[in-house]
Amino acid sequence: MKRKVLIVGIGAGNPEHVTVQAIAALNQADILFIPNKGDEKADLAQLRHAICERFTAADSGHRLVDFDVPERDRSHPAYEQGVADWHDAVQQVYERLLVEEFSEGETGVFLAWGEPALYDSMLRVFERIAAKGSFDLDYEVVPGISSVQALAAAHKIPLNRIGESILITTGRKLAEGFPANADSVVVMLDGQCAFKTVDPDTEIYWGAYLGTEDEILVSGRLGDVAQKIERLRREARDRKGWIMDTYLLRKPRKG
Ligand SMILES: C[S@@+](CC[C@H](N)C(=O)[O-])C[C@H]1O[C@@H](n2cnc3c(N)ncnc32)[C@H](O)[C@@H]1O
Fold first, then answer.
1. Is the pLDDT of residue 181 over 70?
2. Whether residues 126 and 157 fall in one domain
3. Phi, psi for 148 (deg, rounded to 5)
4. How far, in Å, from the CA of 208 to the mean position of ligand 1?
């Protein structure tokens, strides 16, 4: 049975991040798959639903299918193995959806947060499913506005300094040390405030809930603002039950 899948980046929180290409893809869907993840479940599922409602034609006749994405076992003693097990579990969920939800020739759209190519397991999982060859699967990817772009726009800053490079990494990696040879570093997936381990003369541009009405922005010298960010982060997470934040670090200028 032939199945077509479109993996569509929907932006990182502002419905107006949804591109014209993404809207066209949403309107091709026979099935719109809406992932639910972890703590942010209710709020972000609502936003994903609002995007589908706002950008699809009333008579487009699609079905909506909500599904839970398994969470990574953060207590797994070996990080790499923990991730591999988690990807297996996620793959099983997608394979089940391909089996149970599709009819011959249907197109299914999977909504991906931000930009699907950036710290998201969906493309890796579809690559694995396609490589197995058990499905007659044709899939395409529609890019989206990432939280990194939303961060730079909100702070009105370029990501790189003139002629310099940028590196995108995780809080976990940053906690091992500021990356060698990097001038500007974008940090995602940091639940531990790893910026506290960095030279206090580093500049930080921090953003939480970017693109949403709860957006919080702080910038300055780390030594001056790190504690404030930690406090704002804790208060916001207590208030909402979840937080998503991203930041750019710029090495202090020499001399
Ligand atoms: C699983 S990754 C997904 C990234 C996504 N594909 C993107 O393009 O932004 C989740 C991380 O993205 C960042 N993030 C996503 N949306 C965000 C937002 N609206 N505000 C701040 N950070 C966000 C956070 O660092 C969060 O931990």
1. yes
2. no
3. -65, -45
4. 9
